[in-house]
Write a structure and sequence with these properties.
By secondary structure, the chain is mainly β. The chain has one helix and 27 strands. The longest helix is centred in the N-terminal third of the chain and has 14 residues.
Length: about 350
């Protein structure tokens, strides 16, 4: 069985095999199994449910992109799911039930996010360099964007939308070669014009707007750093700069989310945990699964209930793909719901 310890290699190999083969909105209430976040300390996340097991065809399962839909159900993608298996699933977090929403025979989907412009669910297909969209019920598949950007095909990983529905994508170009050629790409809300906003990034992964939509927080997996990229220029403002250097040890920086107070939730690949920082780079807390939880190697992303503090973290490894829950430091907003 292949393991998830080295995502850039193991996941890329699994994606290659796939190509060849063809919302709860309630606030936290006492006694429901979640642990309140205490700034500066460790927050213990608790298992909600297992969504997937390791796929025989790919030797892996890797959950990503949790995002709440308007119906209150949580959408989750399985990056390495083979054809026929649930590549996009819908979870009722109250009843602890899951159902298939979408599958196909080619895509390897690494993130999910609903557009504020047309309400459609957008997915990044890392294997084919495309962004596709679905109706909220999983039907009516469309290609939102495909093709080269500035002469190079994308390796789209995570996405974020601005208020108008324009899409910003972390492009992990160069990741498989170990080269710092990653980019941040902006695509108009109709899927038309694509513009490179930043390049020279090392396996860029997480991407999320700050609370004021003035800039983007972006994480580089192979450099273990979070950078800040202004997108609304003000007099005297600078370009991209390193904002946080993550002391991850063997773990690497994966997806990123932002709560209503502007705190950053940095997922860690290689460790089933998240590091939480404020906007000034101070480490506020570490979210951990219990030490007794075996066979879990990575926490890839989180969705915080819109208007509430209950958070749902996707965790994966040889034991399968799970949802773990904890209390966030602040309420959920669009920036902490998918990406």
């Amino acid at each position: 069985m292949r393991r998830l310890r080295n995502r850039p290699l193991a996941v890329f190999a699994a994606l290659g095999a796939l190509v060849l083969a063809g919302c709860g909105t309630d606030r936290h209430t006492p006694g429901d199994g979640a642990t309140s976040a205490v700034p500066g300390g460790t927050v213990t996340a608790h298992q909600l449910m297992r969504l997937t097991t390791v796929h025989e065809e790919t030797g892996m399962t890797l959950l990503e992109g949790p995002v709440f839909g308007e119906d209150g159900r949580l959408i989750v993608v399985d990056v390495t799911a083979p054809a026929g298996a649930s590549k996009v699933m819908s979870v009722d977090v109250r009843k602890k039930t899951v159902r298939k929403v979408f599958t196909d025979n080619r895509g390897a989907y690494t993130s999910a996010q609903f557009s504020p412009y047309d309400g459609r669910l957008h997915l990044t297909d890392f294997a084919h360099g495309e962004i596709v969209s679905l109706a909220p019920d999983g039907g009516d598949r469309r290609t939102f964007f495909a093709g080269e950007v500035d002469g190079a095909a994308m390796r789209p990983d995570d996405i974020a939308f601005d208020r108008d529905g324009n899409l910003y994508v972390s492009d992990s170009l160069g990741m498989s070669e170990g080269e710092a050629r990653g980019r941040v790409v902006r695509i108009d809300r109709d899927g038309g014009n694509a513009t490179v906003l930043a390049d020279g990034l090392a396996a860029v992964n997480g991407i999320s707007f700050d609370i004021g939509y003035r800039g983007l927080w972006i994480s580089e997996l192979t450099e273990n750093r979070i950078s800040y990229l202004p997108v609304v220029q003000r007099p005297g403002s600078a370009g991209r700069h390193t904002a946080v250097r993550v002391d991850g040890g063997i773990a690497q920086t994966d997806s990123i989310a932002v709560d209503a107070d502007g705190n950053l939730y940095q997922a860690l690949h290689g460790r089933p945990a998240m590091a939480v920082y404020d906007k000034h780079g101070e480490r506020l807390a570490t979210v951990e699964v219990p030490a007794r939880a075996k066979g879990l190697e990575s926490a890839t992303n989180v969705a915080i209930t819109p208007g509430g503090t209950r958070a749902y973290m996707t965790v994966s490894g040889p034991a399968g793909g799970y949802l773990y829950t904890f209390d966030a430091l602040a309420e959920g907003v669009r920036q902490s719901n998918g990406g």
